């Protein structure tokens, strides 16, 4: 690694370093292959001659291109915390040979995303990005001398005619020609939304989803459609049987030092919670022992911590495995995965709740680190939702059942408490509850510089934050009714109001994939109210109360929280910190996945310009355009 560092130029080296806990840390790429690169294409009027038209515009267009490059480099990051790599064409592009030279450079540099920028009229079809595999944006400067808007409109018409969707970016206010490097806020918002979504899409390409086991309890979301994964996301599916975990345990295919370190950390920081299992029950005329002894629980901790280490090795590989197991060292290059668990595994072995919860969090025994995505019950569709949002936000994600709608009336009847604030505005709350992959970050104990509750980007997490999260969490013995083999389920209650976004990816026969989005807030109920409601379900699991942003309109899926629950497409939801629905809509348009339900303000919707040709209603446009263009990575 040291040799690699000093082979880099100083500017390139600095891009691979970031500060963590006061120290300079080398960013590591967990995956095989480089991260996607953004390429900037400075487009210029190609006319030369006595008036030196092109020459008079070179400085402007390069200033505009450099401003876009700087914006991306300072605000966009890869999943490992490293700033995105942005390169530029060697020259401005005014005619076909320069466009071809740019395409050749970008192809060799691994560019997956292009942004063409111009302050002037140019020759559209001669200068446009013709690569069918890049994600494309065009920024036309809103000026009057030689308006880039004219080129923007012309080249977007060319993109539409050639079936190469591109995002059009154009500022609301006219600027002076000297302001080409001063990017207005509305343009910044669109550029960054385009960049975040494009980097997320391109990062998934070539990676794996690793299913450990198969379908779980008849849940449709855990039936993997490999054609969908390959065509829409550019991902491959890897499968291993759950018995592989047992093989690695029995044959010592894990790093003993790492395991001992993880076990010691777990014993210090993971407090045991309640055990609601009875001592025994009468079954078939005999007394059947249920509750595990302290010695048995100790063995379960050792087992589940070892599971954690092994699943991490399966996903990302581990060069520190014993030398006899060279094949196992490489892993599966998995950017996401899922664990079946129920029932065949959990009827006999400890459940996977501890590995799922901790892998999905922003830390483990080694401190803060990039979260993994491991879906409970191998619900691949929910796991992919978690992945989408993790790549967009660099934050940990929640996996939960969309479990129960509590109206204001029902809440008051059971607890005597009248809902307030966001919960009252949505006329009820939705209980998000499930054992498994709910990240510990969702406890709501971490705060920003202003004291507001937050789920931080992983590289912002401190040792103090980790302590707050582990202190807020207890690990309860798994209920024997669900998990006969034991194990430990995390339990906390989200004790803060935080903006959040819940999504669900669904597959519909004859239609394909669709995404649902519900922006809202977590709700901090009084302890006695939350506890009363929790006792009616499973009080040993992580608990989040959710109030979606509702509109009160008849016939709307967002009339109240009840209608959101009623219109939800499956039993699970993926939940992220922040209102990120607009980013998800942009990302889905790149992947050609229509959004069938959302509460994102219409003025925040940003899709390729050619979507406007598919009718005047935004939702209908999306369906028709996605059907016409088909999956991004179709064969």
Secondary structure topology:
Elements: H1 2-6, H2 10-15, E1 17-20, E2 23-26, E3 37-42, H3 53-75, E4 85-88, H4 96-109, E5 111-118, H5 124-127, E6 135-140, H6 148-162, E7 166-169, H7 185-204, E8 208-212, H8 226-233, E9 236-240, H9 243-251, H10 256-269, E10 271-272, E11 280-283, E12 286-289, H11 294-316, H12 326-329, E13 334-339, H13 353-359, E14 363-364, E15 367-368, E16 374-376, H14 380-393, E17 398-406, H15 408-415, H16 421-425, E18 429-433, H17 463-471, E19 474-477, E20 488-491, E21 499-508, E22 512-523, H18 527-534, E23 543-548, H19 561-567, E24 572-577, H20 581-591, E25 595-597, H21 618-629
Parallel strand pairs: 3-4, 3-5, 5-6, 6-7, 8-9, 8-13, 10-19, 13-16, 22-25
Antiparallel strand pairs: 1-2, 11-12, 14-15, 17-18, 17-24, 18-23, 19-20, 21-22, 21-24, 22-23
Task: Please provide a written account of the structure.
The protein is of the alpha/beta class. Helices cover 36% and strands 20% of the residues. The protein is built from 21 helices and 25 strands. Strands 17-18-23-22-21-24 form a 6-stranded antiparallel barrel, surrounded by 4 helices. It has a 5-stranded parallel β-sheet with strand order 4-3-5-6-7, sandwiched between helices. A 4-stranded parallel β-sheet has the order 9-8-13-16, with helices on both faces. Helix 6 (148-162) links the parallel strand 6 (135-140) and strand 7 (166-169). Helix 7 crosses helix 20, helix 10 (256-269) crosses helix 11 and helix 11 packs across helix 13 (353-359). The two termini are 37 Å apart.
């Amino acid at each position: 690694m040291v040799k690699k560092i000093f082979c880099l130029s100083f500017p390139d080296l600095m891009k691979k370093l970031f500060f963590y806990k006061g120290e300079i840390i080398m960013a590591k790429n967990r995956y095989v292959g480089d991260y996607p690169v953004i390429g900037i294409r400075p487009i210029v009027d190609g006319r030369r001659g006595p008036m030196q038209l092109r020459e008079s515009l070179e400085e402007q267009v390069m200033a505009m291109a450099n401003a876009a490059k700087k914006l991306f480099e300072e605000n966009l990051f890869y999943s490992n915390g490293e700033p995105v790599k942005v390169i530029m064409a060697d020259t401005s592009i005014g005619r076909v040979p320069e466009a071809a030279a740019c395409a050749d450079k970008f192809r060799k540099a691994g560019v997956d995303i292009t942004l063409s920028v111009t302050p002037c009229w140019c020759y559209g079809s001669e200068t446009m990005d013709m690569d069918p595999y890049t994600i494309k944006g065009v920024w036309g400067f809103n000026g009057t001398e030689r308006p880039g808007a004219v080129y923007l409109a012309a080249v977007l018409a060319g993109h539409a005619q050639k079936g190469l969707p591109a995002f059009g970016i154009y500022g609301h206010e006219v600027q002076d020609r000297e302001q080409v490097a001063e990017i207005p806020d509305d343009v910044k918002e669109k550029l960054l939304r385009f960049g975040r979504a494009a980097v997320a899409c391109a990062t998934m390409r070539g990676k794996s989803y690793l299913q450990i086991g198969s379908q779980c309890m008849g849940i449709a979301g855990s039936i993997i459609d490999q054609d969908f994964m390959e065509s829409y996301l550019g991902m491959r599916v890897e499968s291993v049987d759950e018995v592989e975990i047992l093989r690695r345990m029995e044959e010592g295919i894990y790093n003993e030092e790492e395991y001992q370190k993880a076990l010691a950390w777990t014993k210090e920081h993971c407090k045991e919670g309640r055990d609601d299992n009875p001592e025994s029950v009468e079954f078939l005329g005999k007394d059947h022992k249920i509750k595990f002894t302290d010695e048995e629980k100790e063995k379960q901790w050792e087992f589940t911590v070892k599971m954690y280490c092994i699943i991490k090795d399966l996903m990302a590989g581990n060069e520190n495995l014993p030398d006899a197991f060279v094949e196992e060292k490489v892993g599966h290059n998995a950017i996401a995965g899922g664990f079946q668990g129920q029932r065949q595994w959990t009827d006999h072995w400890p459940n996977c709740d501890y590995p799922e919860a901790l892998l999905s969090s922003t830390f483990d025994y080694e401190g803060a680190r990039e979260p993994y995505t491991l879906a409970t019950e191998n619900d691949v569709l929910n796991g992919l939702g978690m992945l989408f949002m993790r790549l967009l936000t660099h934050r940990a994600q929640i996996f939960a059942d969309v479990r129960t709608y509590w109206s204001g009336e029902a809440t008051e009847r059971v607890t005597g408490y009248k809902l307030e604030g966001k919960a009252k505005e949505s006329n009820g709350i939705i209980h998000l509850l499930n054992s498994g992959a709910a990240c510990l970050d969702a406890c709501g104990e971490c705060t920003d510089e202003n004291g507001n509750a937050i789920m931080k980007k992983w590289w912002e997490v401190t040792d103090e934050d980790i302590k707050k999260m582990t202190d807020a969490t207890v690990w309860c013995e798994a209920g024997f009714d669900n998990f006969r083999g034991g194990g430990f389920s995390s339990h906390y209650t989200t004790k803060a109001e935080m903006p959040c976004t819940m999504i669900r990816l669904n597959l519909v026969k004859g239609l394909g994939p669709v995404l649902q989005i519900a922006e809202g807030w977590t709700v901090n109920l009084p302890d006695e109210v939350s506890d009363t409601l929790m006792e009616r379900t499973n009080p040993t699991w992580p608990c989040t109360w959710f109030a979606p942003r509702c509109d009160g309109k008849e016939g709307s899926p967002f009339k109240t929280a009840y209608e959101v629950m009623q219109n939800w497409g499956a039993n699970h939801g993926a939940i992220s910190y922040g209102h990120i629905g607009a980013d998800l809509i942009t990302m889905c348009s790149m992947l050609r996945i229509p959004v069938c339900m959302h509460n994102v303000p219409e003025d925040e919707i940003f899709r390729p310009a050619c979507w406007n040709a598919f009718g005047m209603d935004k939702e209908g446009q999306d369906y028709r355009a996605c059907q016409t263009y088909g999956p991004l990575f179709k064969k």
